[in-house]
Amino acid sequence: SDIGNYSCTYEMFGQTTRVGPDEHFQDIKRAISAIAGNAWRITVVMPLLYASRQHKRKGRESLDCAIALQELERMGVSGVITFDAHDPRVQNAIPLTGFENLNATYEIIEKLVHLGVGLDSSEMVVISPDTGAMDRAVYYGDVLGLDVGLFYKQRSYETSGGKNPIVQHHYIGPDLAGRGVLVVDDMIASGDSVLSLARELKRRGATDIYVCVTFALFTEGVSHVQKAFEAGLIKSILATNLTYIPPTLRECEWFEEVDMSGTLASVVDRLNRAESLSSMFDATERIHGLLKDRRAVPN
Description:
By secondary structure, the protein is an alpha/beta fold. It has two domains: 94 residues, 3-Layer(aba) Sandwich (Rossmann fold), CATH 3.40.50.2020; 157 residues, Rossmann fold (3-Layer(aba) Sandwich). It has a seven-stranded mixed β-sheet with strand order 8-7-6-9-10-11-12, sandwiched between helices. Strand 1 and strand 2 form a beta hairpin. Helix 3 packs parallel to helix 9.
């Protein structure tokens, strides 16, 4: 189920209303309830994990993601399969229920290769936009043989428009002057943070900036990203189709869709055959094979 698919609508009180994540999650529970305990096994495939950014408590906050997972467990769900969970540690909420967190790293790198992006260590650096994405950046750097840099976002404790604005970026890593950049993260929400980061990268001399994410939500539209592209701030944004991509985003020349339909089909096929998903967790060998094939192709 795609809990981010706001293209779904329904009529109520004479108005057309878009289906939000809460309603999508309720539909999942309705489907499980309708099974009435007659299934041999129930596995929920939820590429964009419900409430995945509401995963930890710093004050009087709800723990929506953990509570949702526990609800599914109580309803008899034996396993949850998701992609690039914002914080995989949320699976600790259901320690006795299967929780598989897959990644789109291979498919994203395959897309970069298809686009002809230079992935030589002399001309490209992998950047983690914050400390939370560092493991992901280190993996990209390792399999691609690239240097890795880290930005730490210093945020204001004062909220503005429901957000904690970024006050300053602190950078740790190699010199970026004259080199391209791969920014890797799990998702883009509004897009403000990644554009702020792109300005910092340009200020440090970076050339082409590619942003690679699993989910591109653009909760405030794409007009500000379009302006950034026209100003030469970013080269391209790559994101999967694991959640809904509106036509307005697909039409943008800076947006590159990473198709995950084959991977999802493979997951469902293996579940139906009661086969292991283990080989899908580590894409290192496949990535090395992809890069080897690319080097073997003459320019």
